[in-house]
Amino acid sequence: MKLDNITKNLLKEIAGLHEIPNGAVSFRLNGKSETLRSTPHIEIKKKTDKPGIDIYIHSNCKNEACHIPVIVNSNDFHDLVYNDFYIEPGAEVTIVAGCGVHSNGSGSHDGIHTFHVGKNSKVTYVENHLALGNGANKTLNPTTILRLDSGASVTMNTTQIGGVDNSNRITKVYLKDDASLVVNEKILTDRFNVAKTNFKVELLGKGSKCNIVSRSVARGESEQVFKSNLVGKNDCFGHVECDGILLDNARIDSVPMVSAKSNLASLSHEASIGKIAGEQIIKLMTLGLTEGDAVNKIIEGFLK
Question: Contact 26/35 with Cβ under 8 angstroms?
């Protein structure tokens, strides 16, 4: 299919794509499925009872990728989708998701993703969000539910790149024996953006573990709220770390929580909010950068 420049730009930013890729792909545009393609090891089917897809990752899938970008570029359009992922035991896959909204009015996408991750399988999940345009109510609300069977592992790399006026990011995770979760979250807000993040991880099995790292920058008059709750119910390990940089008149609230329901659980959390050190800016300015460019470079490095 032929893509306009706005769609091309959004695809590049949220999924690193210059065109619809080969292989397993589901491309959703303004609430409609534009491209739906399976491969021998990755099967994608449309749901029949509600908007969304079912994705089946077979056990013989090894180091393959599945792309499922969503774009909303129609003014005052509100999209809702339910995607279910069934990863068979032993599979290894990278799933590249992400949503881009371009609107001069209001525009939104709510995505509910549920993962059923089989024994000893490995999943890398990449999810990028971006909003462009002059609209004042561009909203992205991702909900992610992960159920990991014994020995399964999931790495989540999530980024809210910018321009999103409102977001409510909800993640719920359930880990069985020796299952593991790694999360790397990056969020940038500006102007009057409001971003909320809420993690709840239940470490149910013996040897289960998780490590969550969230890095965020709040500028302008924006607000961020980060909440996390690690619940240890067995011989397990869990750690959450939230680091924020605060600029201008922005606000960040960080509320990490740990709950040990077994005397064998090892849980910890860290939270820090600060500003950019003046000497960092001065050092970069001596190399020829303006103050604004220096601040942007420091933010870019922090969010890498």
Answer: yes
